[in-house]
Amino acid sequence: MLAVVLLLVFGFFLGLKVGSIETSYSLIWEALTHYNSEDSAHYSIVHLRLPRLLLAFLTGASLAFAGYLMQALVNNALADPYLMGTASGASLGASFSLFFLTEFTVMGLYLPPFFALVGSFAVTLVVVILGSRRGQLIPSQMLLVGVALSSLLTALVSLIMFLSDSESQLKSVVFWSMGGFEKADWTNLGYPATALIAGLIIFQFLQKHLSVLLLGAERAETLGVEVGKLRWVMLLAISVVTGFAVAFSGPVGFVGLMIPHVTRAVLGITNRFNLIFCALAGGLFLVLCDILSRLLYPPAGMPVGIVTSFFGVPFFVYLLRRKNYRFS
Amino acid sequence: MASYHLYTSVTVSKNLSVFLSTFLMGLCLLALASCESKPAKAPNQKSSYTIKDDLGRSVTLPTQPKRIMGLDAAMTEMLFAVADTASIIGRTQNCDYPAMALTKPVVNNYPMDYERLLTLKPDAVFATEGIISLEVAAQIQKMGIPVYFQAFDSVSDVLRGLKDLGRILKRENQAAKVVNSLQQKLQAFSKDTAELQEHPKVLAIIWKDPIYVFGHNTIFTDKLRYLGADNAVSEVMAQQSPALTREYILQLNPDVILGGTFEKYDKEFFSLYPELKRIKAYQNKRIYEVTDDLMSRPGPRVIESIQELKQVLR
């Protein structure tokens, strides 16, 4: 845990250093402690790099947290926060606004994230309705409905890409669908931050119940956990946290699947700090991926989704091959 | 119990055989479909010669092409400037200049409508680098139609391209006429800018989200050179139209932005990226709209494009 926190601090300083304008650590310190708005380097550090890093951290933390809950909810090692069509709903919403609406902003509201949020919640709602019976969530059915709907929505996004008549429009949609943090600013950090912190506080209290749920729903019932209610609370948390993360950063892949497994491999299945560690590790992972993307492909950086898979997969496979790792 | 087992095994084997036969039929159909058809014979290939195009590809062209076509808007403009217009047999959905182009039959170029192209029976087609992919060109070549690419990184490339087309189409005189008139106008620009005091840094924005701009290694930089101005993007990047971060643009601090009117940019671009309001172009309200086609199409209208840039920069 301490190592992750230390790495995060280091990652933040490194992230503040990397950019178009040459900066030293002393300049970063100066910008953070004696901010001068006339100095363009100060401005870049405080108004561009810092929000970008915070958004990367919040997105990684949100997806890792939601992934942890999702894997517990459907008791499946392959589950990730996008299982309920959140990502494809968000992609469709954003693609729709990028393609059909020539205005990017209406009354100061930047449209793609707004549509992404609407899309992700709408799809989640449909999956919940189709994946439950008489008010009872049926995880296996939800999983299947989610996968089926996702492929339908992905086809619709492909249709929008196919209909794009300009290369730039196509690039917009593609760029969005691979995730990135370039549009981070102080005004849009509040939503994902609030959702994540609220989720973490609620589930820190329910931590024991989550661990029991991994033993299977029936056993959890006999141990006094109200599985039905717990599932609904988890579902709500997953959709809100994922929805906000995806709306501002695009669907960044792999974090929500991988980091929960890393957490359990490092701390074990029932550690009470699992959720906090998972969020911190997810945040750290995306901060490092974002820095790497900007170093590999200056100035704009490549879409972060490419980097997460590139460096995440080998590490993940190594982790799974370790003899002592078990999902539940 | 035993009968139940018998029943299920029969159904399973039935289903399996249905599945297998469907699968095999599908495979046969696929095999049939993927049989390579022989390339169609190109018309008029009695006398031909091989030359290298701007990409260094060897292209075998008929000595006197009678039926030609441009595969993109810039190339159509180039051909109309040099070729006998009767020999131009088609255009793409984007080709809208000169007006006479609109009378020609349309072949979609994205996705490429190969069948329609084949029915027009061109002797040769011409394409601009970066607009038509090599993959599409290879497919057209397979049908027996040679594809000649031109690349335009500078204004002089356009003049050279016009001369090359004159040679290929046996229209040297027409090409020389067009090139000479363009050269005279260019010289006038150069004289004009010799005594200029200001050398503004100009950023041409193509797309707002992500922010794509005309990079340094483009004809846009060369057009500005005739006006004594500079492309704000001075670094040569991997892509011709790179995506830039807000931080990078802040650092460039361009004097002028091209892409839309100040009012439009204030409402859309700068409300999306309020951090960029610090740049000089915004502070001094030097944000202008320019004609898209003139900016994005290298071709004989390059002079008009420079003229338009001159108007907004002064």
TrEMBL record, chain A:
The chain crosses the membrane at residues 50-70, 82-101, 107-130, 142-163, 232-261, 273-296, 302-320. It is found in: Cell membrane. One of its GO terms (biological process) is siderophore-iron import into cell. The keyword Disulfide bond does not apply. One of its GO terms (cellular component) is plasma membrane. One of its GO terms (molecular function) is transmembrane transporter activity. InterPro entries: ABC_BtuC-like, ABC_transptr_permease_BtuC. Keywords: Cell membrane, Membrane, Transmembrane, Transmembrane helix, Transport. Pfam families: FecCD. It is a multi-pass membrane protein. The keyword Oxidoreductase does not apply. It comes from the Bacteria. Its main location: membrane. Belongs to the binding-protein-dependent transport system permease family. FecCD subfamily. This is Iron chelate uptake ABC transporter family permease subunit. It comes from Nibribacter ruber.
